[in-house]
Amino acid sequence: MDCVDQSNANAEAPSVIDRYYTRWYRADMKGKACEDHCILQHSNRLCVVTLAETHPILQEGRTIKSINYQISNGCSRLKNKVSGKSKRGAQFVTDFAPLCRITCSDETEYTIYSCIRGRLLEVNENILETPNLLIEKPSTEGYIAVILPKFEESKSITEHLLTREEFEGVVSKRSVSQPSS
């Protein structure tokens, strides 16, 4: 006898991202229209910085020429060496700390920011060799960086970020205000 409810058998299970992470957004980063970032916050307070699905790199079908974690002459995110339980050696980043610069084939350059305060645990070196991961799998293998907020700040770090519903409201207002071509 088959006891499987067929109505649920065909329904897709939620992805790992949807099941274990809360999505937070930062719209129009540093006043630049549509340069939206997404922060995936795990229940263990780890935060993964990704491009929001509305970012021009993902929306406009751009080709990525290069990704550079060298922020300035004295600061490279690739030199971030973390060790031990207390995450010694991790670079501390603030809300507007640049993580990397992405240059597209048309020479358009985008700076990706941390959006939250915390210790930079790792940057995704895989996207240096395979930049298309950023476009093809932005929420998984194409992430930018992983940040661990201070324990006492883990609840307050999201107060400047938008929920998915708030972000969708911002995006829908954008599409209303932009004239159709």
Present the secondary structure layout.
Elements: H1 6-9, H2 16-20, E1 21-26, E2 37-42, E3 47-51, H3 56-59, E4 64-68, E5 70-72, E6 75-76, E7 91-93, E8 98-104, E9 109-113, E10 118-123, H4 126-129, H5 133-136, E11 145-148, H6 164-177
Antiparallel strand pairs: 1-2, 2-3, 3-11, 4-8, 5-6, 7-10, 8-9, 10-11
Keywords: Cell projection, Nucleus
Protein name: Protein Abitram
InterPro entries: Abitram (IPR039169), GCV_H/Fam206 (IPR033753), Single_hybrid_motif (IPR011053)
Portion of residues in beta strands equals 25-35%
Q: What is the terminal-to-terminal distance?
A: 58 Å
The CATH topology of the domain at 18-63 and 81-97 and 113-172 corresponds to OB fold (Dihydrolipoamide Acetyltransferase, E2P)
What is the β-strand count?
Answer: 11
Rg, please?
18 Å
Just give the CATH class of the domain at 18-63 and 81-97 and 113-172. Answer: Mainly Beta
In CATH terms, the superfamily of the domain at 18-63 and 81-97 and 113-172 is RNA polymerase II/Efflux pump adaptor protein, barrel-sandwich hybrid domain
What are the low-pLDDT stretches, counting only 5+ consecutive residues below 50?
1-7
- Named at the architecture level, the CATH assignment of the domain at 18-63 and 81-97 and 113-172 is Beta Barrel
Number of helical stretches of at least 4 residues: 6
* Content-based structural category: alpha+beta
